[in-house]
Amino acid sequence: MNQHILIVDDEPDILTSLAAVLSAEGYQVSCAPDGKAALNLFRSGHFDLIVTDVRMPEMDGVRLLREVRRLDQYVEAIIITGHASIDNVVAAMRNEGAFDYLCKPLEEIDDLLIRVAQALEKRRLRIERDLKTDQLEKMNAKLKREVKERQKAVAALLESEEKYRSIMEANPDPVVVCDRENKVIYFNSSFSRIFGWILPECLGKNVEMFIPAKNRPAVREMAAKLRKGESFFIIKIDHYNRQGAAIPVSINGTPYKDPAGNLIGSVFNLRDVRERVSLETRLQQAQKMEAIGTLAGGIAHDFNNILCAMIGYTDLALMKVDRGSFIESDLKEVIVAGKRAGDLIKQILTFSRQSEQEQRPVQVKLIAKEALKLLGSTLPSTIEIHNNIQSNALVMADPTQIHQIFMNLCTNAAHAMQEKGGIL
Q1: ∠ at Cα 408 (406, 413), nearest 5°?
Q2: Which run of H or of E encompasses 151?
Q3: Coil, strand or helix at 30
């Protein structure tokens, strides 16, 4: 059994008989004739149970129990006493925690063995209970530490999530976060502002719902790159808003990983490029206009040379015709038209930035009458021209441009009256 019992009694016969009985049951037994000797043995060895008399010289059983309890709280004790010392037994059991007692003379050996077995079982159970209690206390302390650490981790995670959410929400560009299946798990307020979608109605839906069919192969290709842990930069595609209109965007993509570095999704950063596309279109148009202006400037120079010859020969023809003749009147009209053509050449040169606009005091009334006179011969008879210009005021302007304004206004009005006629 390997259980060690210390027997203490000042009567040698009792020591010998008890030692023989307990040894026969397989217990390891040591004997002491009094409390002092027993205490010395206890200090030098290990004992599971003490079977002791109460009244002994040098040190009685009650004091012995008090001393050994200080050395080993788990040691059990059985008191053996005569009837005369029953009060001491009660005191030992109540104050020193003795397990039980037996009265001398010991008539039933089985009763002794039963009490010994019960005392040793109690010791085992107490040790096991305290061991488990200690283990539970340690586990409880460990759990408390783990709970505290987890609470700190959760708080740190919430703080981190809030920080990154604030960064996401402050980003003026749309940001979309998807899982490994390209299903939406988050997008920021800029995405809602530009495309009109709100997060609850898009959660769990594939991002291809936002992409026109013609662009989906490109989206699948970049999603395949992301699943391999690769990033991609500046892919231009169209993106549907909630109304179904396609908005041109550029997209950057990067893998989305957990703290352990495992791929769990993708992050897409979009940029609305409508303004940039508009600026590019305007730039291309400006470059075209610049090319047209350069071409027009070259043509204007050549046409100006031809016009000079026409006006020159018309002037020579005027010198040779009779004054007041119809031919003279027609030639003068040619001169006026030629000068007007020269003014148009100036406008072309201004458009091509090869000549500066020239502003001078002009009387609008005269320009208007000249324009109306020119229109009178070109408009159909169903349109009547009524002229009631009274102001003689002067304005600082380019007379050619003023003439062109009148011509454009009157021509547009004539087109509006082309079917039913009217008064201009």
Answers
A1: 95
A2: helix 109-170
A3: strand
Encode pLDDT of 207-230 as tens digits: 888 888 888 888 788 888 888 878
Q: How far is residue 301's CA from residue 347's CA, in Å, rounded to a whole number?
A: 12
Laid out side by side, the sheet with 4-8 consists of 28-32, 4-8, 49-53, 76-81, 100-103
Residue 326 CA to residue 318 CA, distance in Å, equals 11
- pTM score, two decimals? 0.41
Angle formed at CA 72 by CA 67 and CA 74, multiple of 5 degrees: 120
d(CA 18, CA 7): 8
Q: Write down the residue that tokens 């009148």 correspond to.
A: 406
Q: Name residue 6's beta-bridge partners.
A: 30, 50
Whole-angstrom Cα distance, residue 400 to residue 404?
Answer: 6
Q: Which residue has the tokens 């390891």?
A: 28
SS3 content of the chain, % helix, strand, coil (to 5): 55, 20, 25
| Alpha carbon 327 to chain centroid, angstroms | 86
> Among candidates 60, 79, 67, which has minimal Cα distance to 42?
67
User: How does 9-45 read in b/e, with b if 16+ C-beta sit within 10 Å?
Assistant: bbeeebbeebbebbeeeebbbebbbbbbbbbebbeee
Model confidence over 363-383: pLDDT tens digits?
A: 888 888 777 776 776 777 788
Element (H, E) at 365: helix 364-376
Q: What does the alpha-carbon distance between residue 258 and residue 285 come to, in Å, rounded to a whole number?
A: 48
Beta pairing partners, 237 = 249
State which amino acid sits at residue 313.
Y
Cα–Cα distance measured from residue 223 to residue 338, given in angstroms and rounded to the nearest whole number:
68
